[in-house]
Amino acid sequence: VDQGNTVAVIEHNLEVIKTADWIVDLGPEGGDGGGEIVAAGTPEDIAAVEASYTGRFLDELLHRRRKRVASSAAE
């Protein structure tokens, strides 16, 4: 990665996903109900896609983080 190489990771942990530079979200379901690209982009891009299950949960996680940062800045 430090040399500019790309690393592809299959991940389900949102704490890891939220730190990615770029996400390709496959779905919409698992198994036979999936295999399509539902969304692609930054974590913020994915969070804005209502059709993405990952995006819905990621939006909550990112929203909580933004709220915490804003309240810390206000103190």
Q: Gist?
A:
The protein is α+β, with helices and mostly antiparallel strands and 75 residues long. It is 41% helix and 15% strand. The mean pLDDT is 91.
Percent in strands? 5-15%
Q: Note the main sheet.
A: 2 strands, antiparallel
Give me the number of helical elements: 3
What is the radius of gyration? 14 Å
Mean pLDDT: 91
pLDDT below 50 for ≥5 consecutive residues: which ranges? none
N-to-C series of helices and strands: HEEHH
User: Order of strands side by side in the largest beta sheet?
Assistant: 1-2
Termini separation (Å)?
A: 37 Å
Strand runs, count: 2
State the domain count. Answer: 1
Multimer state? single chain
Describe what this molecule looks like in 3D:
The protein has helices at residues 14-17, 43-47, 53-74; strands at 23-27, 36-41. It has a two-stranded antiparallel ribbon. The protein is flat, with a radius of gyration of 14 Å. The protein is α+β, with helices and mostly antiparallel strands and 75 residues long.
